[in-house]
Amino acid sequence: MNKKYRHALVAGNWKMNMTVSDAKPFLDALRNELPQKRGCDIVLCVPFPLLHAMQRPAKECRIGLGAQNVSEHEKGAYTGEVSLAMLADLGVKYVIVGHSERRQYYCETDSLVNAKAKALLAAGIAPIICVGETLEQRECGLTMEHIAYQVKAALFGLTSAEVKRCIIAYELIWAIGTGRNASAGQANDVCGFIRSVIRKNFGAYAARGAAILYGGSMNALNAAELLAESDIDGGLIGGASLKPADFAKIIAAASE
Ligand code: PGA
Prior knowledge:
This protein is an alpha/beta fold. Helix content is 45%, strand content 16%. The protein has twelve helices and eight strands. The protein has an eight-stranded parallel barrel with strand order 1-2-3-4-5-6-7-8, surrounded by five helices. Helix 7 packs across helix 9. Residues 13, 171, 176-177, 215-218, 236-240 line the site of 2-phosphoglycolic acid.
């Protein structure tokens, strides 16, 4: 983490877990576990039905509210979709786009990810853009090629100033929810490569400012090692963000 240029960021992704009734005890427990001195931003990306109830308590805990998806359309006849304006109205400041689960199960394409990122930036909401390789791609030596393509496609048509406001999450798809992960050095190599792709296409200013997170089984035990790496600015955390004590330990590691 290079705190001279970037804020550390710890973002929890609750995925399809937790109810409104679960959220209050979670936040109470988290508040008790948080470190005295907080040296990072905290975000919780929660399911849509929880956003309203979490708006106030999250603000009280100085936690940024995030969603896990948004429609690329402004409004209209799109049954089941949730618009940007609806999220903005609930105080949402971050939205995950292109998570590997959405790409895999809901056919989200690179151009859709790009359209969503553009719409979010225009509305003043920070996109957390996910990129990452499968185990097969890694074993074939295609990691960097694949990552470069995904990053360029997601950021296509954005200005340097917009790219600086983006958060890129490098997810090792094969490490998500499996307990497996890359070594801290391997993860940092890819995060550094993402920064170099941004530098080449959008300049040093954007590359220095864009936050690059690591995602894939980050937990209370491995967070400090991962977050000590120069190009890892924080984490996108699934499973461990559902446990207040573990999530707080990751926040403490990012606050060092
Ligand atoms: P995990 O999920 O921490 O449960 O592996 C991470 C993610 O989905 O980004």
